[in-house]
């Protein structure tokens, strides 16, 4: 009987969903068929996802489950249809092949990444309908975080203590990842590179940890779990030395705290001021806390400043913005984005077709990049076979789908934000917890997309799907209650 219950459709779908969430940190799984070595975005979670979605559709067709419907699917569907139309237009332009890559191949590949991203969004939306589903989802996300922290700790021991040989740990990592340990001793966790790990922290893990502390809501009976995970995660984030990940995390935390933490700010201020009116011991405690915070921030700044990659941000004496980009090692990113943006200027309404921006980058590189950016010189070598990318999701959207696709994408994003904020109407702690995490993730993803250009990255879709699913179900229940009351 227990075995039959385990393999019941609901139990099995939940097991698959747990597997999706647990494996999210592995972004570049080595063992994928039919993918070349140049494909780095390889989420391990695609394997359980490939089983989950057909199972949900079969159950829905048999009437065994009801799938959520949300208005967010309208702008998302319009964006998808326009992407397909823009890709057809790009086929008419038919750019010249580049290093063995042809337009049709790049278009198919790009469309596949979009549908991978959509699968994460839709499955998250269907698998989250109420508080119980939310708790289940967050618990398994945090389980994945624990695995990520454990592997990051192993890397830290290898880099900073010498207790483990780097060559041996590299072999362990290559057993599942496309990438060996980072030679500059930056922590990358289970992700492909440190920037990807920092992006996971900002867009997938920190939203739930931050929201849990801000709303005092816990997803397990261990009240200490979320604060402990946050305290452990912060040094790991610093050890990635990812400028984009650090900026996204700090900005998202600050903006979320500003907009949704006003009650907490007032309570903290009242508690802080009140201590100076009672006893000297209470006042000393508060002064000590300020000093401890200053020491922690100074220590974090000193730790980051050890890497020239970080300290360049304020130590460079550049005479122009382009010189500044080159000096802080962002010249290549600026060059790729500039080359892709030139394609948008040529075809501003429809773009050049999904996945085709790389065909236009080299011919539109700014003059300053040809002599001052070593990476560009390597890319222009006839022996190089890499296909260039814009390195910026917004520039990619403009270049490949034009203004229409860009506007549709942001229409979808702001619809998601509206669904997230709608949860604040419900006077329940779990709803405020979910909304706070959603706002944090929304801000973090907005900043993170300036530094990445892949639609197949799960963490830019997953929390949005979770919150849209919760909002859709809550709105439907509110409508049903209103109709029942009206009928009475």
Can you tell me about this structure?
With 488 residues, the protein is mainly α. It has one domain (2-275, 390-487). Helix content is 69%, strand content 0%. It has helices spanning 2-6, 9-22, 46-61, 73-93, 103-126, 131-160, 166-174, 194-215, 225-240, 243-260, 262-275, 280-305, 308-315, 321-327, 331-346, 358-361, 369-372, 374-379, 393-422, 429-448, 462-487. α4 (73-93) packs antiparallel against α5 (103-126), α6 (131-160) packs across α9 (225-240) and α8 runs antiparallel to α20 (429-448). The protein is globular, with a radius of gyration of 24 Å. The model has no long low-confidence stretch (mean pLDDT 87).
Draw up the topology in text:
Blueprint: H1 2-6, H2 9-22, H3 46-61, H4 73-93, H5 103-126, H6 131-160, H7 166-174, H8 194-215, H9 225-240, H10 243-260, H11 262-275, H12 280-305, H13 308-315, H14 321-327, H15 331-346, H16 358-361, H17 369-372, H18 374-379, H19 393-422, H20 429-448, H21 462-487
Helix pairs in contact: 2-3, 2-6, 3-5, 4-5, 4-19, 5-21, 6-9, 8-9, 8-10, 8-20, 10-20, 15-19, 19-20, 19-21
Would you summarize the structure shown here?
The chain has 488 residues and is mainly alpha-helical. The protein has helices at 2-6, 9-22, 46-61, 73-93, 103-126, 131-160, 166-174, 194-215, 225-240, 243-260, 262-275, 280-305, 308-315, 321-327, 331-346, 358-361, 369-372, 374-379, 393-422, 429-448, 462-487.
In total, the number of domains comes to 1
Q: How would the global form be characterised? A: globular
Strand content: under 5%
Instruction: Name the poorly predicted regions.
Output: none
What level of helicity do the residues show? 55-70%
User: What is the helix tally?
Assistant: 21
Radius of gyration: 24 Å
How is the quaternary structure best described? Answer: single chain
Average pLDDT level: 87
SSE class: mainly alpha
Encode the helix/strand succession as letters. Answer: HHHHHHHHHHHHHHHHHHHHH
């Amino acid at each position: 009987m227990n075995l039959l219950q385990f393999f019941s459709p609901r139990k099995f779908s939940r097991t698959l969903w747990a597997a999706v969430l647990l494996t999210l940190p592995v972004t570049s799984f080595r063992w994928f068929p039919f993918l070349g070595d140049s494909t780095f975005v390889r989420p391990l979670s695609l394997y359980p996802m490939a089983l989950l979605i057909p199972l949900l559709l079969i159950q829905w067709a048999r009437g065994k489950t009801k799938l959520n419907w949300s208005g967010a699917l309208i702008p998302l569907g319009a964006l998808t249809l326009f992407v397909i139309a823009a890709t057809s237009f790009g086929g008419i332009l038919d750019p010249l092949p580049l290093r063995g890559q042809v337009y049709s191949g790049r278009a198919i590949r790009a469309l596949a990444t979009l549908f991978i991203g959509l699968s994460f969004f839709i499955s998250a939306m269907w698998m989250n309908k109420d508080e119980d589903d939310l708790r289940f989802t967050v618990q398994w996300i945090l389980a994945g975080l624990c695995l990520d922290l454990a592997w990051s700790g192993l890397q830290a021991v290898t880099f900073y203590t010498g207790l483990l040989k780097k060559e041996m740990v590299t072999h362990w990592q290559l057993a599942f990842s496309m990438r060996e340990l980072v030679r500059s001793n930056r922590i990358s966790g289970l992700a492909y590179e440190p920037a990807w790990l920092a992006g996971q922290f900002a867009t997938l893990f920190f939203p739930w940890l931050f929201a849990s502390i801000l709303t005092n809501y816990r997803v397990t009976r261990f009240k200490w779990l979320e604060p402990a995970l946050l305290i452990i995660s912060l040094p790991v984030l610093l050890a990635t030395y990812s400028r984009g990940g650090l900026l996204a995390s700090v900005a998202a935390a600050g903006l979320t705290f500003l907009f949704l933490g006003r009650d907490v700010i007032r309570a903290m201020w009242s508690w802080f001021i009140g201590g100076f009116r009672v006893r000297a011991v209470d006042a000393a405690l508060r002064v000590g806390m300020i000093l401890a915070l200053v020491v922690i921030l100074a220590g974090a700044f000193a730790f980051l400043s050890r890497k020239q990659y970080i300290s360049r941000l304020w130590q460079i004496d550049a005479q122009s913005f382009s010189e500044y980009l080159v000096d802080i090692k962002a010249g290549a990113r600026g060059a790729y984005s500039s080359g892709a943006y030139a394609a948008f200027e040529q075809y501003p309404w429809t773009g050049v077709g999904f996945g085709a921006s790389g065909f236009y980058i080299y011919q539109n590189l700014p003059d300053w990049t040809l002599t001052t950016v070593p990476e560009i010189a390597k890319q222009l070598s006839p022996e190089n076979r890499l296909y260039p990318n814009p390195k910026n999701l917004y520039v990619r959207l403009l270049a490949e789908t034009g203004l229409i696709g860009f506007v549709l994408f942001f229409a979808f994003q702001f619809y998601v934000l509206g669904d997230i904020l709608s949860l604040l109407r419900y006077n329940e702690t779990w709803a405020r917890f979910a909304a706070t995490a959603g706002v944090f993730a929304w801000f973090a993803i907005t900043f993170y997309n300036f530094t990445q250009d892949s639609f197949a990255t799960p963490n830019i879709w997953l929390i949005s799907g979770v919150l849209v699913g919760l909002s859709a179900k809550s709105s439907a229940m509110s409508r049903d209650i209103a109709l029942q009351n009206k009928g009475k």
